[in-house]
Design brief:
The chain is α/β, with parallel strands linked by helices and 467 residues long. The chain contains 15 helices and 21 strands. It is an enzyme of class 6 (ligase).
Length: 467
């Protein structure tokens, strides 16, 4: 059983020396980086080493690999945790025994944000990309924002940074309701596709959380005009200033004339004028993400044309259609997509740039509850958008195993079993993938667990197979 962090916990006036349990994650490492920048002593632990941990060590963080009570030094004042920790985590247990303040990561972030003009980006999909676009646009406009993103922003090489400006941009996590903790000035809702129902219990409760998030914004709420859930949220909003974006005819910021061959190009209609841009990344969904970022920037008062030009400099984020290597004409990509809608968008974008090659998806289902709920939908989008699919076993994350719930739930729902294989052993999966790959193909790993760790095995198998 994973912990249920107390989101109502009191934030200490002084955090002092801060220990992060699970410091290597993109969100946690970003907050730790800002804590170091604020002059805090930062320690932490994680189950494995990573580039994030190496970067934090370079900045002065003291980090242990493996969770152990001995990692929690006697002079620690505050402990920061995520909801992915198990209740028997020894550092967490010791912190409780000592009576130390134990803060969910969102509360630690709230402490850093205090007094800033906050842009919060929430939604079931597109948060990391949209946050990266806003940050990139602000920097191009000459601003120096603080930001914490859920992935490394290409071109900046970091997922977070402390700036001198008044603006603070965050990717806000709706999965456990913690996005409601922030004192948001501008709220961006990318979409409200049903997810995290294990926490909310129902679609209506999930959507109501977004209503509360939007209505809580001090200045402006920007919301998708296209997504069905977002439209229901918009109907329930009571905010005085609502801006919509998307391809709908009545959108405040309307996307049209989309060209998807290669990097996506499109036009945006806003306030009686038309603006055009070509991004550095592919996919219709990224044109729509750019429109949401544009709506935020013009809502903050920036020039429309300069805002879109700034957004167009965005070069992507880590684990979003990220190329890791090409072997014998086969390119290996990794993508964070872990919901059917995200998988469809990622593969549709890949289709626009793969040319005559095929798409081989290597899919790692994420959490038992999501796999059980969406197995049929995953099978449908994988079969529709990929030419071949290799399904790995479930990455349980914070959940206990559920009898009978494996990756086979997805593979068994393909209409044509000739184009899917359930291969739970990673080396066998890598070898199988290499055996079916041809010149020009894209191999794309999909999932928000640790599926990216199979990439070296895929590349190794391709090297052996293709010489």
């Amino acid at each position: 059983m994973t912990i249920k962090p107390d989101l109502s916990a009191q934030i200490p006036a002084e955090l002092g020396a801060v220990h992060f349990v699970g410091i290597g994650g993109s969100g946690m490492s970003g907050i730790a980086r800002l804590m170091l920048g604020d002059g805090h002593r930062v320690t932490g632990s994680d189950v494995r080493d990573s580039a994030n941990i190496a970067a934090l060590r370079e900045l002065g963080a003291e980090i242990s690999i493996g969770h152990d009570a001995a990692n929690l030094a006697d002079d620690i004042d505050t402990v920061v945790v995520t909801g992915a920790l198990w209740e028997d985590n020894p550092e967490y247990r010791l912190a409780l025994e000592r009576g130390l303040p134990v803060l969910h990561r969102s509360l630690a972030l709230a402490a850093l944000i205090a007094g800033r003009r906050l842009v919060s980006v929430a939604g079931a999909h597109g948060k990391t990309t949209s946050t990266g676009m806003i940050v990139t646009g602000l920097l191009a406009l000459g601003e120096d924002p603080n930001f914490v993103n859920g992935g490394v922003i290409e071109g900046l090489g970091v997922s977070s940074a402390a700036g001198d400006g008044e603006l603070f941009v965050v990717e806000a996590d709706e999965s456990d309701g913690s996005f409601l903790l922030y004192d948001t000035s501008v709220a961006l809702i990318t979409n409200v596709d049903p997810d995290h129902l294990d926490h909310y219990g129902s679609r209506d409760a999930f959507e109501q959380a977004f209503v509360s998030f939007g209505d809580g914004a001090r200045e402006l709420v920007v919301v998708s005009s296209d997504d069905a859930g977002a439209k229901r949220v918009t109907e329930r909003l009571s905010h005085e200033r609502v801006v919509t974006f998307g391809q709908a005819a009545d959108a405040t910021v309307r996307v049209h004339s989309v060209e998807t061959e290669g990097p996506v190009a499109f036009a945006v209609d806003y306030a009686g004028a038309t603006y055009r841009a070509t991004l550095r990344i592919p996919g219709v969904h990224n044109a729509i993400n750019a429109a949401g970022a544009f709506a935020v920037l013009v809502g903050l008062g920036f020039d429309p044309e300069a805002s879109l030009e700034g957004i167009a400099r965005f070069a992507g984020t880590g684990r979003r259609f990220e190329l890791h290597g090409t072997v014998g004409g086969v390119s290996v990509y990794d993508d964070y997509a872990h919901h059917p809608t995200e998988v469809a968008a990622a593969l549709a974008a890949a289709r626009t740039v793969v040319g005559e090659g095929r798409i081989i998806a290597v899919h790692q289902p994420h959490t038992y509850s999501r796999t059980q709920t969406f197995a049929k939908e995953f099978a449908e989008v994988l079969e529709q958008y990929a030419d071949e699919t290799v399904v790995l076993d479930v990455y349980g994350a914070r959940e206990d195993p559920v009898p009978g719930v494996t990756g086979a739930l997805v593979s068994e729902r393909f209409a044509d079993p000739a184009h899917v294989a359930f291969v739970p052993d990673w080396q066998q999966a890598a070898d199988y993938t290499a055996s079916i790959a041809r010149d020009g193909d894209f191999v794309i790993t999909l999932g928000c667990g640790d599926v990216y760790r199979i990439v070296p095995q895929l590349i190794g198998s391709l090297e052996r197979e293709r010489g």
